[in-house]
Amino acid sequence: MALGGASAPAAHHLATKVELTISCENLMDMDIFSKSDPLCALYISASGSHWYEVGRTEMILNCLNPKFAKKFVLDYHFEMVQRLKFCVYDIDNNTYDLSDDDFLGELECTLGQVVSNRQMTRTLLLKNQRPAGRGTITICAEEITDNRVANFEVSARRLDKKFLWWSDPFLEFYKQGETGWQLAHRTEVVYSNLNPTWRPFRISLRSLCGGDVEKTIKVDCYDHHVNGSHSFIGSFKTTLAEMLTGTHISPAEFECINPKKLKKKNYKNSGVICIKRCQVEKEYSFLDYIMGGCQVNFTIAIDFTGSNGDPSSPQSLHYINPEGYNEYLKAIQAVGNVIQDYDSNKMFPVFGFGAQIPPSWQVSHEFPVNFNPTNPFCAGIEGVVQAYQQCLPQVKLWGPTNFAPIIKHVTYFASQALHQNMASQYYVLLILTDGVITDMDQTRDAIVKASRLPMSIIIVGVGEADFSAMEFLDSDDKLLKTATGDVAARDIVQFVPFRNFHGSSVALAQSVLAELPDQVASFFNSYKLKPPKDFRVPEPS
Fold first, then answer.
1. Identical topology for domains 2-143 and 148-282
2. C-beta of residue 104 within 8 angstroms of C-beta of residue 27
């Protein structure tokens, strides 16, 4: 289906956007042989009682005073009370569910309080409202008015050895703020290399220098240690204007200085950081693309494997209760009722997988639930529900659980759209499933290929199964890799377990769709694709 269409966006999409930066100090140490590994999750209350998750920062190993690089971007509505809850956890495992991780404290406040303070430090509280040790959280708010980004390609040479013959270097970029240096970006670690080249990255100008190319920027270089006590290699200060002079032929070079070594007689530097590319570009927002005519097409895929249980049994996930519901129907309606408001024709292609289908009773991993291969579209969410209910008694739930065929199906259409050389079509695959993937290697390959196309994948986990495979595919902290080492171009998978939302359709829909606007805008911007129609007023030269 198409997210966009002819109708104008609702007024609430035109709110001011605010970027929140999070840091903590003096967190409780929950680990015996190391320090806590903190992560901050942000929740918003939609109705005053239910909370839904907006997003999570990265997890930082062995650190009681974390500065998180990942930001939260929210719509700020002056006329509404927007309740926020920042929850800090010590991450002890690889599961998506935070309930089995150590709780380090939380802060409840309103977005209005954060915006009016600009920088707010508060005590972290435990569930019983007692202080979480000496732990505090600091939230910095900044209105997003500048849509420019700086694209970087950075390398270094002759960095200091910190461990025998090598170092494991990474960089941190800091903006000079009113209350000190604020982390803007942290690169990945390049292991065992004194002459590293980091992956290309982009930083918004508001995060890097507040939009002022002459404002001082600090860059620190560290040798990474697993225990969190990173060794300082060196630092330098510069401006964006100076970095903009760098090219591949003639990089902008900066000496990395360790002040403690300046007293040494023959000390020159601790290495040289080379800015091989620094280019400022304007970014279009998600709203720019939607208002400019970009269509976002949704495809729904439903799991009909035998692990769901016999649909005639009340224990089955496909059992439709006397009220006419099951978890699959709740998930379909929760997400569908949001996205259909943006659709011009309200038509959804819907497929099933993992069932034996008539008349041959062969197992299919890509069959239209309305059994019409030439027209798999269902009219509106009501049509999806009706087709699903009529399909259930006509198929035999079987297996295995293969995702790759339906992903490849949508990938074909996304690849066709990319050839149009404009931001006219984006594809989203919504997969509803009850658990373990059978074709993990093929699924990984399909997702990595799709990451280079205008496409996102949303997986809703239904039931109480082990969803560790889904959490692995939702690579928030590191990009997905194939078995042969091919790395995804970006993170396009969003996984949410239905059980976390306690029946709240609003919370489920908002969490499921939270990452989508950024995925759409970042893809088209990275390919320098403009909306079919650009309604933005040109800025004066």
1. yes
2. yes
- The label of the residue with tokens 């198929």 reads 395
What is the CB neighbour count within 10 angstroms for residue 35?
19
Strand ranges of the sheet holding 216-223, from the earlier edge strand across to the other edge: 180-186, 169-177, 216-223, 231-239
Neighbours of 513 (CB within 10 A): 18
What letter represents residue 437's amino acid? I
Give this prediction's pTM: 0.69
Q: What is the CA radius of gyration of the chain?
A: 25
Range with the poorest average pLDDT among 220-224, 248-252, 366-370, 472-476 = 472-476
Residue 87: per-residue pLDDT:
98
Q: Around Cβ 148, how many Cβ atoms within 10 Å?
A: 14
Q: Note whether 389 and 378 are within 8 A (CB).
A: no
Give pLDDT, residue 126: 96
Domain boundaries, the chain: 2-143, 148-282, 287-526
DSSP code for 496: E
Helix axis angle, 505-512 to 327-339, nearest 10° = 60
Pairing of strands 216-223, 231-239: antiparallel
Secondary structure of 132-163 in HEC code, one letter for each residue: EEEEEEEEEEEECCCCEEEEEEEEEECCCCCE
Query: E strands, 47-160, where?
Result: 51-56, 72-76, 83-90, 102-110, 119-125, 131-143, 148-157
Q: What SS3 class is residue 280?
A: strand
DSSP code for 488:
P
Residue labelled with tokens 């998506």: 96
CATH placement of domain 287-526: 3.40.50.410
Residue position matching structure tokens 């009909």: 304
Q: Architecture of 2-143 per CATH?
A: Sandwich (2.60)
3-class DSSP state of 60: coil
Nearest of 118, 98, 115, 116 to residue 106 by alpha carbon: 98
Please give the Cα distance from 480 to 450 (Å, whole number).
12
Judge whether residue 233 has pLDDT over 80.
Answer: yes
Select from 475, 476, 467, 493 the least CA-distant residue to 97.
467
> Residue-wise over 367-388: b if at least 16 C-beta within 10 A, else e?
bbbbeeeeebbbebbebbbebb
- Residue 296 pLDDT exceeds 50: yes
- For 264, counting Cβ atoms within 10 Å of its Cβ (0-12 exposed, 13-18 middle, 19+ buried), the class is exposed
Q: What is the pLDDT of residue 181?
A: 93
Q: What angle do CA 423, 453, 537 make, to 5 degrees?
A: 20
Closest C-alpha among 438, 428, 406, 434 to residue 498: 434
Give the DSSP per-residue string, 292-311.
TT-EEEEEEEEE-BGGG--T
Average pLDDT for the chain? 88
- Rounded to whole angstroms, the Cα distance separating 258 from 163 reads 16
**Looking at domain 148-282, what is its CATH homologous superfamily?**
C2 domain (2.60.40.150)
DSSP 539: P
